[in-house]
Amino acid sequence: MVRKLVSRINLSEDEIRKSMNLILGGDASESSIASFLVALRMKGESPKEITTILQAVKRNAIKITPNITGELIDTCGTGGDKIKSFNISTAAALIACAAGCKVAKHGNRSVSGFCGSADFLEFIGMDLDTSPDIICEAIENIGFGFLYAAKFHPAMRNVASARESIGIRTAFNIVGPLSNPCTNLSGQLIGVYEPALLETVAVAMQNSELDELMVVHSYDGFDELSNTCENDIIWVVDKKIQRFRFHPKDVNVLVAKPEQLLIHSGQESIRDTLRVIYGLASPEKEDIAALNAAAALVIGKIAKDLKEGVEIARAALKAGTPQKKLSELIHLCGNKDKLIEAEQEFLMI
After folding, report:
1. pLDDT score for 78
2. 256: helix, coil or strand?
3. Number of other residues whose CB lies within 10 A of the CB of residue 280
4. H/E element holding 242?
5. Pick from 53, 160, 73, 74: which is nearest to 117 by CA?
């Protein structure tokens, strides 16, 4: 199959499925996994290949089904953008939750940045080993739960060493954010690190179980919606694909400069993410989180459009509700003392 990939020929569903069974089942050597992933990356992953890999990853996942009515959404980026920012997707997810969305936030440790969602939440007191039952309880009662990818996808341990050894992005960097293990997830906001992935991910997910999906990329390179420039969105609703472009001014968001959003260390990322959630950050940082929360609110059927979503997100921040949701989450799923320590260190409260 590696020869076929090197010849830039797409693999069939059956070929991908057999390869994934060997890889995720622990029956493939590190060198063969590395060769397969590099050859697939060199060819370029097709939407059908991404879909089939995703199906295999989800088959091997630990699944949960929170007992909720209405929409259940996720916000997750692929990482890989070259711009070092705070953890926008986690802040946006908590703001969306505070505004009425049920959120099953799927995430991992950092791939390319200083601090991934798991790094941030662990630092402020979240127990990443929280049981699936308690995570379901958090989603049902708080409206927010964090699904740590390494816990819910144990089969991925079989590819960890090969991925680390080759040191480049592979199909698993695309599939990871798509593989939320909630069986009743209804919608997702997915940020991608390069424009070419917009179409690939949208087509790969077009026939998924999701009712609604937004795949986004900003012109300045963020794998999120950005308040610094125009943004491209592919919006999949009931299996139908829509494409549009918008500018932050279109939704009453002031244009920021990229340097106003940058961080230079993991500590700065934790600080700024926490400040945004507490409504204590700069207007530019709060706005980029509110903009992404707005997309989540549209997917979650809380807002009719992005403009209304921004207004709702800003109102939630002003009311201090995201802070309360975070506190409830850590109280149920972690160590409240660590959150207090983080508040004292970064917020001086």
Report:
1. 76
2. coil
3. 17
4. strand 240-246
5. 74
Work out whether the CA dihedral 339, 344, 348, 349 comes out positive or negative.
Answer: positive
CATH for the 73-336 domain, from 3.40.1030.10, 3.30.420.40, 3.40.980.10, 3.30.420.10: 3.40.1030.10
Look-up: residue for tokens 């997707």? 89
Tokens of 147: 């699904």
pTM of the complete model: 0.95
Q: 153 to each of 92, 254, 297, how far by Cα in Å?
A: 24, 40, 27
Cα distances (angstroms) measured from residue 218 to each of 7, 61, 197, 198, 243: 32, 31, 12, 11, 14
Provide CB contacts within 8 A for 121, sequence distance 6+. Answer: 90, 107, 128, 146, 334
Separation of alpha carbons 299 and 297, rounded Å: 5
Q: Whole-angstrom Cα distance, residue 113 to residue 103?
A: 23
Q: Tokens 């989800």 sit at which residue?
A: 58
C-alpha to C-alpha distance for 162 and 23, rounded to whole angstroms: 10
Please give the average per-residue pLDDT across 300-314, as a whole number. 98
Query: 264 to each of 7, 32, 115, 181, 310, how far by Cα in Å?
Result: 41, 37, 11, 32, 27
Read off the pLDDT band of 257 (50, 70, 90). very high
State how far Cα 145 lies from the chain centre.
Answer: 13
Kindly list the distances between the CA atom of residue 261 and the CA atoms of 63, 88, 201, 284, 287, in Å, as whole numbers in the listed order. 35, 10, 26, 7, 10
What homologous superfamily is domain 2-59 in, according to CATH?
A: Transferase, Pyrimidine Nucleoside Phosphorylase; Chain C (1.20.970.10)
* 143 within 8 A of 103, measured Cβ to Cβ: yes
DSSP bridge pairs for 217: 232
3-class SS letters over 146-210: EEEHHHHCHHHHHHHHHHHHHCCCCHHHHHHHHCCCECCCCEEEEECCCCHHHHHHHHHHCCCCC
User: How much is the pLDDT for 113?
Assistant: 62
For the chain, give every domain's residue range. Answer: 2-59, 73-336
